[in-house]
Amino acid sequence: MLCISSASASETKGSQNAHCPGESYLMLVWYHRLYLYSAAALLFGVWFVLKVALKRTSFSKDVYKSVQRTEDSDTVVHVSGVKIFYGSQTGTAKGFAKELSEEVKTLNIRAEVIDIKDYDPDDRLSDECTNMSVCVFLVATYTDGTPTENAEWFCKWLEEASTDFRYGKTYLKGLRYAVFGLGNSVYVGHYNTVGKNVDKWLWMLSGMRILTRGEGDCNVAKSRNGSVQADFLAWKVKFLTRLQALAKGEKKRCSGNCKSGGSCKTNRKEQEEDEVTALHNNSSEEDLMESSSDEEESGLQDENKSGSVVDMEDLGNIMNSVKRAKSKEEAGDGLMVKLSKVNGVKKIEDEAERREMITPALRQALTKQGYKLIGSHSGVKLCRWTKSMLRGRGGCYKHTFYGIESHRCMETTPSLACANKCVFCWRHHTNPVGTEWRWKMDPAEKILDEAIEKHQTMIRQFRGVPGVKLERYEEGLAVKHCALSLVGEPIMYPEINTFIRLLHTHHISSFLVTNAQFPEEIRSLVPVTQLYVSVDASTKDSLKKIDRPLFKDFWPRFLDSLRALGEKRQRTVYRLTLVKAWNVEEMQAYSELIALGQPDFIEVKGVTYCGESSASTLTMANVPWHQEVVTFVQQLADMLPQYEIACEHEHSNCLLIAHTKFRVDGEWWTWIDYERFQELVQAQEESGGQQGFSALDYMAKTPSWALFGANEQGFDPAETRFQRRHKTKDISGC
């Protein structure tokens, strides 16, 4: 370099004589450019190394400070809170949501209960993927497998989003969720449909299940834990356990598929048992792909969501077990069948193993409504007209139409369960539902004895009450009539014939009401004083809309029940309940149904509004005025050549159309000779059924005040009319 420098200096001196100063400077820079490049590179390297070193030092300090703050204040949060969404029609899911919220708060985790109708999933649901929250969905299944009214929009949005490419399959990636569905397995094909769909749609959008889907069954006979409340309790315990693990930051549990290629035998065995039970309860192979055990669900995303949660060889064994269970259940040996973790199938041979119809929650609800419950499936309640006639303030429409003594009438039922969920049910659907008897059964003697005892106890409470007539009080203690119309479907009770015979043995008349879904039971029924069939609609569509029956073949059953009624020789009645804007325009169809069953009488009554109910959309606007009922009856009677309007009870908004065979010499004989009926029943029993009788054998003359068109409009002149003022109307009564 010294040599080069000397040479450069010599050249520079030599060239200074030949060039100007500016050109000499440029030439100097050019000849020394190597030094300049080296210096620039050196400076840049030093700057870069210093910057990286300073950045690492700063990052280390920040991490240290963050960790220090975390250790000091415990701010590492794995679960920021739990949001509990509910879709409820009758309030059960809402109650569960509040209950779960309180339990979560005891774990020092924030909980929020949200009505799903007030939540906009399009704007807010994706936020739940990043805020470390856990979303719980408690959703009930409503009519025909549809969502409840407050969950309709959410379910519609979720279904569309799960198949909309604009959202993408990873739209809810990071969302941690759990689903508990509420339903009734009696509704075959629709059981917990909404819960299953919500679970499936969330999973399709890459949501992560933290717990297997829970299913609450209102059908006590098939509920895994005995009731929907017990089902929720069992699921809640699992959820809270899982939530605690998440809050501690624990990793997912073993999925049963180890990296080594092995499997956790215990988990696989439990999984198989759960899937067999799920298949038996839901009768759907689809459930295997939609929901699985906790272990499988936590491992689904690790397997790229292949959708397979059970090995094919295991699935074959599961399906074979279910087929064996179904084949034995269909063998017709008259025994109930259920799955067992021991051998797959277990017969319930002992009555003690059956469950009670009335669950603790149901018992509490019915007791609050004034029911006096009997045993495990029966009840009795005091009718408002019984109270009224004890005071001499008038009797019910049965007093006007048929001559019963309302203060001596006991309203009861041997079966609280029903096969319909009518929109105008004045029990607000608190009673259980079912299509067959699958509960513990109390003997008929016990039911009748306790019913009479509890009824008399309620009558005794009126002793000394102002206005109660002493002679009426004494008569009221001796039950003379029994209205089997309190609630539910009395004809479902397996020993209904024994119960009716016991009534007649006690010289108690029998008025039995059925909802026209059990034709064979109607045919096998022993003679009753008067047999009713509820004809709430005249077409298949309107009947489904109003009665909301459980049977899939409800319409053939309905028609066959009317035919069975026509085969009876004792007094038969069609009970028509008019619901304005629902079934008052089906005149021709009604006349055809009347021709099918040929009843002795047709009761036409305006629907009674029983207050607001979340289980029904019925309002006061659906209640027809009495004059509207009269107009309907007049038009209907004009279409029936063998029927005429006989009686009226204006107070109950009810009229009676009677067959002209009960019009003798121009006078109506719609009343009942109860003593004569008891004699005829006794004679038939003693003859072993050989000596029969018909409705005409125990009829009695109808008083003039009870006839249609009379000034009294069905109010007994021997009674005192009482007008309530500024008081809530009592809407109870048969």
Itemize the secondary structure elements and their pairings.
Elements: H1 2-16, H2 21-31, H3 33-73, E1 81-87, H4 92-105, E2 111-115, H5 121-124, E3 133-140, H6 152-163, E4 176-183, H7 193-204, E5 208-209, E6 214-217, H8 228-247, H9 265-282, H10 287-290, H11 294-300, H12 312-329, E7 336-338, E8 346-348, H13 360-368, E9 372-374, E10 378-381, H14 384-390, H15 397-402, E11 409-413, H16 444-460, H17 470-476, E12 481-484, H18 496-505, E13 509-514, H19 519-523, E14 530-534, H20 540-547, H21 554-566, E15 571-578, H22 587-597, E16 601-606, H23 626-638, E17 643-649, E18 654-659, E19 663-664, E20 667-668, E21 671-672, H24 674-686, E22 699-700
Parallel strand pairs: 1-2, 1-3, 3-4, 4-5, 4-6, 11-12, 12-13, 13-14, 14-15, 15-16
Antiparallel strand pairs: 7-8, 9-10, 10-11, 16-18, 17-18, 19-20, 21-22
Describe this structure as you would to a colleague.
This protein is α/β, with parallel strands linked by helices and about 725 residues long. Helices cover about 40% and strands about 15% of the residues. It has 24 helices and 22 strands. The strands form five sheets. A ten-stranded mixed beta sheet has the order 9-10-11-12-13-14-15-16-18-17, with helices on both faces. Strands 1, 2, 3, 4, 5 and 6 form a six-stranded parallel beta sheet that branches. α6 runs parallel beside α7 (about 195-205), α9 crosses α12 and α16 (about 445-460) packs across α18 (about 495-505). The chain is elongated.
